[in-house]
Amino acid sequence: MSLRKLWRSAALATVVAFTTMYGLKVSDALTRNSPPYHSTIVPSAAKGEIPPPVFLPVQSKNPKDLAAGKLLVASRELGDPDFAQTVVLLVHDDAKGAVGLILNRRTDVPLSRVLEQLKVAKDRSDPVYLGGPVETPVAFALLRSTAKVEGAQQICDGVYFISSKTVFEKTISDGPNPGAFHVFLGYAGWDNTQLRKEVELGAWFIFPADTQTVFDSDPDSLWRQMIHKTELKLAGILQAPV
Question: What domains are defined for the chain?
Answer without folding.
Answer: 3-229 (3.40.1740.10)
